[in-house]
Amino acid sequence: MIKTRAAGVLCHISSLPGKYGIGSLGREAYGFAKLLAKSGVKYWQILPPVQTGYGDSPYSSVACNSGNPYFIDLEKLAAEGLLTAEDLRAARHGGPVDYGALYNERYMTLRKAFSRFNFDGTEFRAFVKSGVAEDYALFMTAKQVYGENFLSWDDPLKFREADALEKLRTDFHEEYLFWNFLQYEFRRQWFALKSYCNGLGLKIIGDIPLYVAADSADVWAHPELFKLDKDLRPVKVAGVPPDYFSETGQLWGNPIYDWKAHEKEGFRWWAGRMESAFLLYDVVRIDHFRGIDRYYEIPAFAENAIGGVWQDGPKEKLFAAVDCKDRVIAEDLGEMDEGVRALRLKLGFPGMKVLLFAFDGNEENEFLPVNIEENSVCYTGTHDNDTVAGYVKSLSAEEFLLFRSRVATALAEEGIWVPLGETSKGFPEALTRLALASRSRLAVIPVQDILGLDNEARMNCPGTDSGNWRFRLSRLPRGSVMRKFGRMLKKYKRR
Q1: pTM score of the predicted model
Q2: 429 given a catalytic annotation
Q3: pLDDT tens digits, one per residue of 406-425
Q4: Is 384 a catalytic residue?
């Protein structure tokens, strides 16, 4: 539970500016942290910083506890003598994130760094021996050698027979060490950045997806914890029923947990996952929290999510094995019911309130500022929404007039004056002020809304397979913009 009124900014690492095609843990991250802290911001929220797989989504990773190699700062590798000035020049790339180019080029650059790395060093050897990246390194080594999906591997490796794992580790030892190297460098850089942020009084809110990818080290290493057939193929997959985002629901395709198997082992895997998250972040947002109370289960190979059914989840039993230390935010958006509301209240976790969902004309709408409770986190929008300016631009003339009237009413109720004209101008500031003025202990504003950007800066469109996760800032926000934001924080007693 967040104890005092504070404000945060949502900006994923990938969205930071820089020279090398994607945001990194380098100088721009430090500059962004300094800007936030100077403005009075107390929380920096990011999306999962994991290695992405097909579709480039940070919510579908090859390993749920991995770090994204694309985020490794190349200039730090150069400072360590692992890359040359020519290597850095070749890695330069501007504009939105181009994942295809990164996949084809970035690993070549990182392999050059590894070729100059002393992997006999004591610290690195201790990291490998610790096993922190063991399943990930074996999984990625096998992918490079035998093919993309682990279901296609020969049975001894597919089913993780001890001799097959040892043969993989021995026969392709340098490849195995390369993938360990990537996690070693990511973690070194990550913890240095986190230490810097914490030293500024800035805390990191990290995000963990409820589910893992079907083709992942997690499923390969722990098939007994998922609903799979004898060939390790998912029998049931995750998603959500038709809702605000999609008329046919969302078919995510992630394998469903066998919660009875988890309970039998005392939720050991989940406890380990949460403990890892608490090392990486100061506060953890659990995505799709409602699936812990009840989850939507869809037959594998279904064409859409319409035919799924609801099943009971582990509920509070899951957290009996985890010391959450008042450090969890529950993402409780979408189709909620009394069960998940009661679970969140019982656990004391703050839920999420999104102002873009508030202005439908229903006075009982839980997202309206007047209805928001203190134990919550208020957002203008999330990574799955339009930006505020983009949303306003998408409205028809009639919808715009209704929306403007409802926002104006909410502003008047809070004693806030922001001019709202005939365009989207003014709306990002209006909703930002409403979020900051709300009773929520924590208000988090996406950087896109602080800057007033339209939907070209949108992060993700749920239900679409391409064009997502590409947004990048062209430069760090100007000091004048952040000073104005800082004055807002002071006015609404959040600094």
Answers
A1: 0.96
A2: no
A3: 999 999 999 999 999 999 99
A4: yes
